[in-house]
Specification:
Layout: H1 3-11, E1 36-46, H2 57-74, E2 78-88, H3 94-110, E3 115-122, E4 127-137, E5 152-156, H4 161-171, H5 182-188, H6 194-198, E6 204-209, H7 214-225, E7 227-232, H8 240-247, H9 252-257, E8 264-268, H10 273-282, E9 287-295, E10 303-306
Parallel strand pairs: 2-3, 7-10
Antiparallel strand pairs: 1-4, 2-4, 5-8, 5-9, 6-8, 7-9
Helix pairs in contact: 2-3, 4-5
């Protein structure tokens, strides 16, 4: 399948008919709503780094959309469109690309994220990237900066399932995916709490998503806001798989630094607790208060994880690093 045949057959039918201009032009055209800011983010996934080289097409598409939508959720943005960069690796034949395009449409549609266009090339390694666009009312974007001392620290969902899911993916052959666990699904098809995030703008003082690991990403929040945090290990929300992993001798460091959770962490004033509980219930989101922010005048801007005995957990590697 040639480049233009691929575009015509697989991507033109799933592209937004208005903004994408039928994929017959060199650019898309979108007019943001009045009195809104346009939020733009991009993430690339490389074969063998961000997904296994033998990953099925639906996993690649699901992870591509989920990881990018997570960035919009962290800003409290409503998705409005995206452009795709596709580098076709030597193992991606026509049937694989057909399956990828079909899965891409499914996951884009589930988040209300129209495809506007993109670029298609070939190379020695498969790579996929989305540049996502969202909107927020002017001046209301959530950022990493804004937390002050004595604020509650929250996380959505559970922590550590992305790490555990990757271990399962690496242990299974492609045709062994019959009984998928929740951890496998957390890695293979991340689902950020997008609807919840769009209602969070009025309640949170800062926010970001958990991609590199809870420890590292809480550190990022601390550094941006100029605070420190005390996080209670006993309060961290874990799945049955994560509880079993710890019970079998697994380490907290793996769960706190493994990454790929694509949940939200944020701070909010204690006065917002009741409103946040109602919002979480209405959006069917598991929400857990895991600690408090504090002044960093006497120490570094970072998160300390405190065990039930009041001792700080030493975490040698706090998260994933690309370099």
């Amino acid at each position: 399948m040639g480049e233009f045949d691929l575009i015509t057959r697989l991507f033109a039918p799933i592209a937004d008919p208005e903004s994408a201009l039928g994929l017959q032009d060199d650019a898309a055209c979108y007019t943001p709503p009045a009195h809104h800011d346009l939020i733009i983010s991009t993430d690339a996934l490389v074969s063998g780094v961000h997904f296994p080289e033998n990953a099925p097409a639906d996993m690649v598409a699901a992870r591509l959309v989920g990881t990018n939508v997570s960035d919009l959720a962290a800003k409290g943005a409503r998705p409005v469109g995206c452009v795709l960069t596709l580098c076709v690796g030597p193992q991606w034949d026509s049937s694989y690309l057909e399956a990828f395009a079909a899965a891409l449409k499914t996951h884009l549609d589930s988040h209300g994220l129209p495809l506007w266009g993109g670029d298609t090339v070939s190379g020695p390694t498969a790579l996929v990237s989305l540049t996502v666009h969202g909107v927020v009312p002017r001046g209301e974007m959530l950022t990493r900066k804004g937390a002050g001392p004595e604020q509650d620290v929250y996380v959505t969902g559970t922590i550590g399932d992305g790490f555990l899911g990757l271990k399962e993916v690496q242990a299974l052959d492609t045709d062994e995916r019959a009984a998928l666990t929740s951890a496998y699904q957390a890695y293979a098809a991340p689902t950020p709490p997008l609807n919840f995030a769009q209602h969070l703008r009025a309640l949170a003082s800062c926010c970001m998503d958990v991609s590199d690991g809870l420890a590292a990403d809480l550190d990022h929040l601390c550094a941006a806001s100029g605070v420190a945090m005390d996080i209670a290990l006993a309060d961290l929300p874990l799945s049955e798989a994560a509880d079993a992993y710890l019970g079998a001798g697994g380490s907290w460091q793996d769960l706190l630094s493994g990454g790929d959770d694509y949940q939200l962490i944020f701070c909010a004033a204690p006065a917002a607790r009741d409103d946040l509980a109602v919002l979480a219930q209405n959006c069917d989101v598991r929400l857990t208060r895991i600690g408090m922010s504090k002044s960093a005048q006497s120490g570094p801007c970072r998160a300390d994880f405190i065990d039930p005995d009041g001792q700080s957990l030493e975490i040698e590697l706090r998260g994933f690093r690309h370099f």
